[in-house]
Design goal:
The chain has helices at 7-41, 53-61, 66-73, 83-96, 100-111, 125-137, 148-156, 174-179, 182-194, 196-206, 210-221, 232-241, 245-248, 259-288, 300-322, 329-337, 341-350, and strands at 293-294, 354-361, 366-372. It is mainly α. Among the domains are: 14-73, no CATH class; 293-372, no CATH class. A three-stranded antiparallel sheet has the order 1-3-2, covered by helices on one side. A hairpin with a 4-residue loop joins strand 2 and strand 3 (366-372). Helix 1 (7-41) packs across helix 15 (300-322) and helix 2 packs antiparallel against helix 3 (66-73). The radius of gyration is 30 Å and the shape is globular. 15% of the residues are buried.
Amino acid sequence: MTAAPRRNEQAGPGGDLMQRTFRRTACALVLTVCLAGWASVAPAASLVDATFEPLVRRLAADGFSDTKLRRLFSRSEMAFSPKAMADKLTALYMAKYGLRIVADVQTRLKDLGWFPGPVDGRLDRMTKWSIKAYLAAVALPPLPEANRALLDELEKNPKPAPPGLTFPTFTTAEVHERMLSPERLAESREFMAANREALARVRQRYGVPEEYLVALLAVETRVGRYLGDQVALVNLASLAAAENPAVLAPAFDYEKPAPDRMAWLTRKAEEKGEWAYGELKALLRYAEAQGMEFGLPRPRLLAAAYRFYFARILPPLGNFLSRTDYAYSYLVTSVDAFPDDATFCGQMAEAGFADCRVTDLTFGVARVFTGRKGLKK
């Protein structure tokens, strides 16, 4: 007697494929939900970059919330970068002592007729011009950088300079030509004309003339047009965490500084690190004062789905993963207790803030409340 076929056997090959596809899709969805829940409720300490751990503890000792710090430093973009401190110390070291790798590049270029000298280990305008001229001659991107790749290329392809090569004459610093170009000056004049009232208030409060303020902003940010390629928070945290000389050792492995120069580097790293730590604290306090708080999305369908996840999925999942009976239950309560936009703007008005505005982030999951308050005379 033959047993009756199971349901999936009756469906045939097409049914088997559909069933397998459904199972894989379901598994993928379950895994995604679990990973999302784990990212939300798992202890953040294990996700903090090990190099940042002493910095997080120091900030917590200075009064910042340890929970908030760990949540912040567990984000994927919060990865320690030694480049921030290495770049600053390399520039300072080169200005004071000269760099061995630059001197080696200069020597090789001079031997080939691309560089007139002197060999001083400083990446000045003439050295950059010589590097670019050589690289263009060997059909490589003319990047004015002195590094091991360039030394290797000079060794592999020692192309001599053409006879009678004429070297340019530089009479001003590179930064002067860049900052005082007609384009940059026009940007500064436009910024000053558009912000006269704000600049005057700053002068009245701090005593800094408007021209000085605009000059500083022009040099640092092109009066707000360029804010850097890296996140300021990551750079400041990396600088503050890089006071340890061992962290910077790889950046100077070619240089191999003498003990007295290494001591100088250590002092400079500590100075830069302390400056960055102060700026980091100021940035965190400023961000904390901006009124960001969790909310619910404004679109009704999204709000309903988000509330269901927030109230029915996140707390039990948090309880299961953390083996407690309270994980993230407080968050639902705090969000529900947070006042609506009109009420919170009213509270801001009572505190002396005018022109309250609300900016939604991620469809209203988070909101930024801003307001203006007059300066005390």
